[in-house]
Amino acid sequence: MSRKVFIILLSWFCFWPLAAFSQQATLSIDPQEILIGSPAQMMIEVEVPAGGITIWPDVEEATDNNIEVLRFGVPDTITKGEHTLSLRQIHSITAWKDDFIPIPPLRFLHIANGDTIAFATEAQLFQVKGIEVDMEGLYKDIKPLFSIPYTFRELYPYLLILLALAIITFLIIRYFKKAKTPEETPAMTEKPGVPAHIAAISGLETLKRKQLWQKGEIKPYHSELTDILRKYVSRRFHVDAIEMTTSEVMHFLPHRLTDEDALGLIRSILEMADLVKFARFKPLPDEHALMMDRALEFVKSTIPEESEKE
Questions:
Q1: Number of domains present in the structure of the chain
Q2: Do the domain assignments include residue 248?
Q3: Which domain holds residue 264?
Q4: What's the Cα-to-Cα distance from 168 to each of 156, 158, 176, 177, rounded to whole Å?
Q5: Residue 238 lies in a domain
């Protein structure tokens, strides 16, 4: 075998995995041609190694806001193998510019085991047509305005609102008339302080019942989850976690907590929340529930021994 052929084959074997992986993201638009303002479906499919985190691109930013997303789709798992995971995301899009709109490659990041893999879709061309106006047609007068009398069915909702307001006003006035003066009201005694771990577990259970991420409120869910943990860390370990960044918390907390498993739990929760709040990362549905389970596990694993005996 000649030296030239050997070098070509060696290069092919070395770079073939990267080339193959670069084709693991596909984008399709249906239909490829729309009238201005009409909806179309943008379907994105990716195939990534099992495990890790996949960061999806922002479609509107990637297209310089030439595309408007009417409805954002949630990444859905198509197939799940031992080594690979196939995901699909479908957006409802439109455009307001009468032109051929180029859609550049949408870039993805997959983070697993400390490694980051970048890959992208192929560029697409999306055609938007304007509405044709017959400029040679006959002009017609605008029809005059005419009034239509209101029906009882149209007035009925407003009558109910007025009745509800009248009842609420009556109840408020009656309440304040019967309310006691401040001198007659006995002073309320302050309840003993609730232990930090009980307050944290109660807060997490309350957050779970709100079902924020199930309603699409991803950022509020992770913000409230980390707020509960930061308050717990502040009370339990006397680390001002509420005013610290994630890196600062993970710098000072190991001086008060030596359990590596517990430190790993809170690190993963805080880093996931940072991705959601600052990088517009959209976790998979299973990852939301996983962060809640890890938060409860962290609090329960760090309960003081005195509280456990009680």
A1: 2
A2: yes
A3: 196-309
A4: 19, 15, 13, 14
A5: yes
As given in the structure block, the two tokens for residue 274 are: 């940072």
| 213 and 119 fall within a common domain | no
Task: For residues 108 and 205, state if they share a domain.
Answer: no
Distances (CA, A) of 3 to 6, 7, 9: 5, 6, 10
- Measured from the Cβ of residue 285, the count of other Cβ atoms closer than 10 Å reads 13
The predicted model gives 285-290 an average pLDDT of 89
Which region, left, alpha or beta, applies to residue 252 given φ > 0 means left and ψ of -120 to 50 means alpha? alpha
Give the separation between CA 99 and CA 94, rounded to whole angstroms: 13
Distance CA 185, CA 44 (A): 64
Residue 78: CB partners within 8 Å, gap ≥ 6? 45, 86, 87, 88
Supply the pTM of this predicted model: 0.39
Residue 184 has pLDDT above 60, yes or no: no
Query: Which of 103, 86, 87, 123 minimizes the C-alpha distance to 40?
Result: 103
Which CATH number fits the domain that encloses residue 81? Answer: 2.60.40.10
Residue 40's alpha-carbon distances to 93, 192, 239, in angstroms, are: 5, 59, 51
Computed over every residue of the chain, the mean pLDDT equals: 80
Between the two ends of the chain, the Cα-to-Cα distance in Å is 79
Model confidence pLDDT, tens digit, residues 88-102:
889 888 888 888 888
